[in-house]
Design goal:
Blueprint: H1 4-7, H2 12-27, H3 30-40, H4 42-61, H5 66-95, H6 100-142, H7 145-150, H8 168-172, H9 180-196, H10 198-209, H11 214-240, H12 246-266, H13 278-300, H14 302-306, H15 311-340, H16 344-361
Helix pairs in contact: 2-5, 2-15, 3-4, 3-5, 3-15, 4-5, 4-6, 5-6, 5-15, 6-11, 6-13, 9-15, 9-16, 10-11, 11-13, 12-13, 12-16, 15-16
């Protein structure tokens, strides 16, 4: 068989959609990776996840049918990513105290960089080695997750449970949903995720609908990706300065992200394909900046909400909620596009989801200004992992938040 995609050309788009849905569905199992790392540590879990991800690409390189691709890229690779991302990012939050959000932003910048670099790199691999060779090389690249996981050093920190959780429910961290503050945060994050991923899927088709040519649409996506990657660093630096409480920054940048998505949907039609679509470029850049600023705050706020001992489990649960948004948002956007003929309604509805989630975030402690100025928290210790600052809002009881640094009206 010379070309798998050639033999199945009539079903190329549905098969790609089905594989993406299957992969995203498996990524909702990220709490399982967090639970396993809580029980046995992040190092072995991430290493096993790297091996599974690599095997998924290698298995797919020898595929003879679409079922093989589903099993390789969907089941194996999807399960591998579920074991890698949450334990690695949750462990990273435990390593830093003073510059924790900046560290998370640096780690998440890889998403924006891959959006710019991976597409031309994949095309180069396809031109020189074919799709089978490209998958084999991607399998070799993803195998590097295993030595990266071996570098995750376990830490015993104040606030950690004395013994690992025994029951599956405790290991998954589902008891976090009994805390009002985490329930508010989870609801807001689920609503935001319903619209957050839509531009990553439909921004280029929306640019084509607005009259831009292929290069103009690619430029729009590139501008949004550059803004997203740069804003993650700036947002992390700003959050670590302590000038504005993290829940307030989270609500602010979430609202700006929703407004940016509304602006993307309302941008006027471009006159000709030769134009560069200045208005669409501007609003896409603004959306990229606001969405990139939001991303590190979602994970940077967790230690203050659930305590450092529950941050790995909370990270897995948050990623599960975001994966559910990735499952529901783009299909809804595509349905609205089919019903209305363009993406205007899609971006307006999904932008409304993000604004609704940002409004829910206002129920978090210190998300709204208080009657009196809050006392400035003590200067955190250096980044030694074992020494952590007292969280601005310590929420370790099921009864809800108890702010020690701020008073409310």
């Amino acid at each position: 068989m010379g070309s798998l995609t050639g033999c199945y050309a009539p079903w190329a788009s549905p098969s790609q959609t089905s594989r993406s849905i299957l992969t995203e569905a498996l990524r909702t199992l990220r709490p399982v990776g967090s639970a396993l790392s809580t029980r046995w540590g992040a190092r072995p879990v991430v290493m096993v996840g790297g091996v599974l991800t690599s095997l998924g690409f290698v298995f797919s390189a020898f595929a003879r049918s679409l079922l093989h691709l589903y099993l390789g890229l969907g089941v194996l690779a999807g399960a591998g990513w579920a074991l890698v991302f949450a334990p690695a990012l949750g462990t990273l939050s435990r390593y830093f105290s003073r510059r924790r959000v900046l560290a998370v932003g640096l780690a998440l910048t890889g998403n924006g960089a891959s959006s710019l670099l991976l597409a031309p790199a994949l095309q180069l691999l396809l031109d020189h080695f074919g799709w089978r060779g490209a998958l084999l090389l991607l399998g070799a690249v993803t195998l590097h997750l295993t030595p990266c996981g071996a570098l995750l050093r376990p830490l015993e920190l104040p606030g950690d449970p004395p013994t690992p959780p025994r029951s599956p429910l405790a290991a998954l961290g589902l008891d976090l949903f009994t805390r009002r503050v985490f329930l508010v945060f989870a609801l807001g994050t689920a609503l935001v995720a319903g619209g957050y991923f839509v531009p990553y899927v439909h921004l280029a088709p929306h640019a084509l609908d607005r009259g831009l040519g292929g290069y103009g649409a690619a430029l729009v996506v590139a501008v949004a990706a550059v803004g997203d990657a740069g804003a993650r660093l700036l947002s992390g630096w700003l959050a670590d300065q302590g000038w504005v409480p993290l829940p307030r920054l989270l609500a602010m940048f979430g609202a700006l992200t929703g407004l940016g998505l509304l602006a993307v949907g309302l941008v006027p039609v471009v006159g000709s394909e030769e134009g560069w679509g200045g208005p669409l470029l501007a609003v896409a850049g603004a959306y990229g900046l606001s969405a990139g600023s939001y991303a590190p705050l979602v994970f940077g706020v967790l230690p203050g909400l659930v305590g450092i001992g529950g941050v790995v489990q909370a990270t897995g649960l948050v990623m599960m909620l975001m994966s559910l948004g990735g499952l529901l948002g783009p299909p809804l956007s595509g349905f609205l596009r089919d019903e209305t003929g363009d993406f205007t309604a899609s971006f307006l509805v999904c932008g409304s989801f993000i604004l609704s989630g940002s409004f829910v975030y206002m129920g978090l402690p210190r998300a709204l200004p208080s009657c009196r100025p809050a006392s400035r928290p003590a200067t955190p210790p250096p980044e030694r992992g074992e020494l952590l600052p007292a969280p601005q809002v310590a929420l370790l009881s099921p009864e809800g938040p108890r702010s020690t640094l701020d008073t409310t009206c």
